[in-house]
Write a structure and sequence with these properties.
By secondary structure, the chain is of the alpha/beta class. The chain has one domain: Alpha-Beta Barrel (TIM Barrel), CATH 3.20.20.70. It is about 40% helix and about 15% strand. Bound molecules: N-acetylmannosamine-6-phosphate. N-acetylmannosamine-6-phosphate (LRY) binds near residues 19, 69, 153 and 208. Pathway: Amino-sugar metabolism; N-acetylneuraminate degradation; D-fructose 6-phosphate from N-acetylneuraminate: step 3/5. InterPro entries: Aldolase_TIM, NanE, RibuloseP-bd_barrel. Keywords: Carbohydrate metabolism, Isomerase. It is an enzyme of class 5 (isomerase).
Length: about 230
Amino acid sequence: MDNSKILGKLKGKLIVSCQALEGEPFHGAEMMAKMALAAEQGGAEGIRSNGYEDIVAIRKVTKLPIIGLIKRRYENSSVYITPTKREIDALLKAGVNVIALDCTKRKRPNGEKLQDLIPYIQNHNTLVLADISTIDEGLDALDLGVDCVSTTLSGYTEYTNTGRTKPDFKLVEELTKQTRCPVFAEGRINTPQEAKQMLEKGAHAVIVGTAITRPQLITKAFVEGINEKSLKA
Ligand SMILES: CC(=O)N[C@H](C=O)[C@@H](O)[C@H](O)[C@H](O)COP(=O)(O)O
């Protein structure tokens, strides 16, 4: 696939994040490949996926563009989405089209720097999606030459973790005002209406995970909805 055309193809579309971590009922490459297939059948135009095995399995069942990441925790750093060159090399080997890279201002493990990692990925004919949590991080990442940004980490860094339960519409709106580069809306988008609203606010595409691919959490939302005390009572 010609990666330079991917961003154009994703404009206005839905990307489904197919991730189940260890301990989750759907954990496993075979399951994630089925999730990706289901997403494609439902009309998604891209897949976001975590881990070498899951990505290889997904690549076998679909030709959709894959945004890959590897979550790994290192000592002395809270960066966990594709933190080092080691994860980047594994993603390049898996054959992803785009690499999702933590581009927050936090210190990376092994003293590695975004200034080196971004061109390294791009020199392998692979795009960089910057996962950020604030407007400044988004703009800084764009200055460093990333191909696109995603609001993935809003609410998940030490300095944005305010217990937010709704998507960060404001961050998408502000970022799209300040750049012509594609801004992906991601994180806690739980309804088709919210997804559409994000596009109306200028998002290039919408990435949805939990609300589509984590059945235990979808069930929980229904159970909580049923148990919620009626305001009229
Ligand atoms: C914060 C973090 O680690 N986010 C991860 C990034 O890859 C995934 O766990 C999320 O599922 C993904 O961002 C989609 O978001 P949501 O599941 O809320 O639709």
